[in-house]
Design brief:
The structure is a homotetramer. By secondary structure, chain A is α/β, with parallel strands linked by helices. The first copy, chain A, has two domains: 157 residues, NAD(P)-binding Rossmann-like Domain (Rossmann fold), CATH 3.40.50.720; 172 residues, Dihydrodipicolinate Reductase, domain 2. Chain A is 35% helix and 20% strand. The first copy, chain A, is built from 13 helices and 14 strands. In chain A, the strands form two sheets. The first copy, chain A, has a nine-stranded mixed β-sheet. A five-stranded parallel β-sheet of chain A has the order 2-1-3-4-5, sandwiched between helices. In chain A, strand 4, helix 5 and strand 5 form a beta-alpha-beta unit. The radius of gyration of chain A is 20 Å and the shape is globular. The mean pLDDT of chain A is 96. Chains in contact: A-B, A-C, A-D, B-C, B-D, C-D. At the A-B interface, strand 6, strand 7, strand 8, strand 9 and strand 10 of A face strand 6, strand 7, strand 8, strand 9 and strand 10 of B. Strand 13 of chain B pairs antiparallel with strand 13 of chain D, so a sheet runs across the interface.
Chain lengths: 378, 378, 378, 378
């Protein structure tokens, strides 16, 4: 594994490295960690890497790694840079023969995303996307329950992603995370909607298996002086006639990372909260509510395959992240040139999800700027 | 106290009677409990009332009671009939010289509500409205916290009222509650929006002290064969620039009566849930979350005045209901003909709230039928 | 209904009156509310009672009430005085022909309790005891589940009653409640053990239907200067071989009234917490946990008979208290002189529970003073 | 790093490996994974190890590793075998010059534990013990709060460790984990008390900084046919006069791994639950309860040093485990022959905790067999 981005001040870089390290199946051997001169080398040293395989640019990295013997060179690269540097390295990596695991959103614009999709299709290589939250075992259990019809036809879907960390103008106080995420030049056309709204939409579509077909959105920039939206709420409609609400905000002061979803069908509803991810609440019409717990013997094989500890030994965010790596690298190991990968079998977010996410952002921005109630999402 | 409606099969009648009975300050002495022949008498008997003061119609009741000596006749009447019979008895009671406590919504239409307002203004008598949920002590505490600026300027308001009891076509199976609530002739132009959506709107405006100025609403009839909406979601905007979401549904299968509200300001947020009403969660930016509990010595006098038991001895729905009675009857006792009542001092929902609620329902229905995104709520 | 005790500064008097008032079935008409000169009259006035039936002493009350016509005089009396004045009025009431509902503990000593039992047996009248917590609907549901064998044979029972209100020497600061409860002359030989430990023991025996047969107890006076225990922990054994722990403390600073119980059998366990009394958690071996909720249609008739509101409209402490009144007065209404009452049918704590409680206190004190591990509880 | 035990069917072996892998600071390079012929090799292969460094016995491993150049050989060894094979490899590892991280309990008997202590003292090498639960950041925060006197003098300590997985005679159904843990020849004199009771005692002493001085214990073998205790409850006293309860059971059907602790001082109490480890509840006398959350900026440096993700991105059991590795390996890196290690600085359980744990087990068994109430724990 190689890495683009993830230098010493990065938030998500270490998360990727820890997640990749948990199962002992992946070794980081190469990286172009930063465009700040010297920082890539420094990061490589801190990570005990062979300095020969630590590069100043991703271009150099892909060129040189591609020339190494197959048994030695990296199999895939993780792209963990800010949004505006997702496309470049991902495209070049694929074109240099490396599989790619890229942070979400997949690109800076829908256009870039669609281009990447073409490159994936052309090269036949694997592109994974870290919509981390679908990596949780009970999210998979929830999806299985819906697919098995346990809730009956789905009627209502409420998905929320409240955070509070951007309640003040943090980007003006030297916070690196806040700076790039609120900068349209680095983040793209969406602030909160791109950063966390896409996770919410992805989670809703993943669990229900239903596509959002229309949105009626409000985008706000609540904190004065900010250059991108930090708050969104929208009414949503799904392909089967279900409807609901999607909310994502970064100005809910006091909230941490409170992604949650509630889904109601004819027979009952389910509720999952990322901050207590090992519990899935199922409410039934006319019989007692059930609490489903990670690690239990009664879970589906899909949930079990992504669990590392017995019930009552909590797993968390890093393990969910590691599950994306587990599924992606399983596909990478099974990859055979010229043979199409069956994404369903491996269960990780891919280039389709990436295009979908960019499309979602663009449509929400369009809806927010429109005085018409509904805007279709194709 | 007299009562109109609340016969033997009524849900809300017994709730009113129990709530009125808790504090030992109010005695039910008269009633016109039902239009079903004989049922009013039967109800009176079951309640140990003097049969001479149990009437077949509210008209008869007000006529005869008005002729009794002042020391003997009822002081006020509770109107607990279905929506389409709120206006008639309320108006006649006022015009007969009785104060009125009426179930919400105050009337069948905005027009009726406005007429009632005029009657209240003209007679100078007191009209209270059982928006029960504002009777909870911690709702009052929340309002105090917001008013005191503890959260800073309010930015986001999310209020939800999910129920699941109308997930099936219950009205076709002989359920009396379901029947009239889903019948436009008895319920009015709104189903879920009138029955529970108004509670949600009232709660949000009560706690924040802010008026909703615009709505962007979706109204759905989810269960086939139903004649009124059973589900609504809307984006909302408030007078100070805050925005949020209001959701009310009766088809969230497995939900009981899960009214809840979250309010975020610049410095923190608060969260209250009706199903665990003795707990108020306060989340702060940069310091530990606090759990405020009913019955504690640190609460405001407003909250304390509406609490009957020490901390840890839970109070519930009947006590909240009793608080509406407590505040209303306090005003009734203080009433002096010709002197205007200071509603703020007593803190119970009044005719203004009633008009506001009907206006809200009408505006939401208008918005739902419009292809424009926003509809003003005046 | 008449009342002994419950003057203006009483905590439990108003609780009794509110509980008795909820269902509109009981009318307080008489009282000897206080031994403080004038306070009884003042209380009667505040309660709108006929002054002729407000007495300075309970002796006067029983003498005069007994002479009233049957249709007019009180049916029963509630004794809500401090512990050392439970025996006198209860005995005299019974001997004057009145049924009695007495606060727990039933008496000051085991000897008194046994004497009362004899008076009950001799008069054939009804004595109820306000072990309030068994009045909660879900406590009854829990008892039904255990009796029906749903958990299999019971193995472990953990019951706790932590409070924190006596964490300081409150009795020295003029707090009336603290004063008599920590005074051996008014409270008896037990402090926390008598005040709340008996509730815990009663709850455990009520739900499981099993008697405690042995205790191994530690009694502590944690706060310096206090004259009675304020804290206890004990190992306990039950008649069927089950074992467990009983804890009761009034110095768990920050706790409110956190009575809770967990019971485990061969197949699963259940957990109930008084502070969220409308929820019963059932944990199963090998299948999802269930959350049972008050007011739901799937509950047993026993639980339903003691519920006043639909699911999601929370009930609390006053309603539980009202359930003791409801069951007790049902028996009082059915009472026929000379005919034995079937206590099981009515389901309220009675004189047997009272004797049992005093025996428990005496045994725990004995165990605490012993260097032997186990002391039998007969 | 090398490993003794942890073959393909091991529960705790993979946990160690995953925990060691998270931070990318530790590399497993050698192992004697099993005494089952061939399994050690097979495990090594599955872990991509160099087969030359995978051994059939730990004796062979220590001999050969000791002869490798310092830059190449293992720095330390993790001993993850069943209890009866903790002593042998730990002792030999130390005597061969390797630091040791050993699973708890440190040994099969108190005698072995004391011998190990002597070897540690003599060699000056580092021995760590995986009392995992003290690795959680909020456990460290709790300890800091107590040490800083925020709760005032500690009065009551309640620690519980309920599990339900041994509710049936699982050891007879071929479950490898159940088999050795219920076998006195592999597990030692204690069943539940050794397996999980020691964790509870360690946690209580760790957070409070107080030693248990006396126990009054009941040990039960609840499931018929089992050869060791599966359930214990005890009253405990601490050196400062505080008292409390320790409960540990493996027959609480439906419980997962519900270790939890509540500690009350003069001013308030705190509560932590392993199954939701990122939340620390603090209850205060006379002011609102506080919820302290992992990853927040207001935490102590001690807690922050052991956190990997921002607030709201939950951490779990593997991260707590990784924290033991992090602290232990920090000490290993700082180790200089002849220089004494300052254990307080690194904050991981060591040989003293190991001796303490064995002493605790032995004392509890003694107490359980005694008819005297209290048995001192020295």
């Amino acid at each position: 594994m190689g890495m683009v981005g993830g230098g010493l001040t990065s938030f998500i870089g270490p998360v990727h490295r820890k997640a990749a390290g948990i199962d002992g199946e992946i070794e980081l051997v190469s990286g172009a960690f930063s465009v700040v001169p010297g920082e890539s080398k420094a990061t490589g040293e801190a990570l005990y890497l062979n300095p020969n395989r630590v590069y100043e640019t991703y271009q150099e990295m892909f060129e040189k790694e591609a020339k190494l013997p197959a048994s030695e060179r990296i199999d895939f690269v993780s792209v963990v840079t800010p949004n505006h540097v997702h496309f470049g390295p991902s495209k070049m990596a694929l074109e240099s023969g490396f599989h790619v695991l890229v942070e979400k959103p997949i690109a800076f614009s829908l256009q870039e995303a669609k281009t990447l999709k073409k490159v994936v299709d052309k090269t036949g290589l694997i592109l994974g996307l870290t919509h981390t939250y679908t990596g949780y075992p009970l999210v998979k259990e929830a999806r299985n329950m819906v697919a098995a019809g346990k809730l009956g036809a789905i009627r209502k879907i409420y998905v929320e992603y409240p955070q509070g960390w951007l309640s003040t103008l943090l980007e003006k106080s030297g916070n690196a995370q806040a700076s790039w995420r609120t900068d349209p030049k680095q983040s793209g056309m969406g602030g909160a909607i791109g950063d966390i709204g896409t996770h919410a939409a992805n989670l809703a579509e993943y669990i229900t298996g239903l596509k959002i077909t229309e949105v009626c959105a409000m985008l706000n920039t609540v904190v004065k002086g900010r250059h991108l939206d930090d708050d969104t709420s929208m009414l949503i409609r799904f392909e089967n006639g279900a409807s609901g609400i999607l909310m994502a905000t970064q100005v809910a002061a006091g909230e941490e990372n409170n992604l949650n979803i509630r889904i109601y069908g004819e027979k009952g509803g389910l509720e999952w909260r990322q901050m207590e991810p090992n519990t899935l609440v199922v409410k039934w019409l006319g019989r007692p509510m059930e609490i489903i717990r990670a690690g239990q013997s009664y879970l589906s094989d899909d949930a079990k395959a992504f669990t590392r500890t017995p019930a009552g030994h909590p797993e968390g965010y890093l393990e969910a992240f590691a599950n994306i790596y587990r599924a992606f690298t399983k596909a990478v190991r099974d990859y055979k040139p010229g043979k199409k990968i069956n994404y369903t079998k491996y269960d990780f977010p891919d280039v389709e999800d990436g295009v979908r996410g960019m499309n979602f952002v663009q449509t929400v921005v369009k809806s927010a700027n429109s005085s018409k109630k509904w805007t279709p999402l194709k």
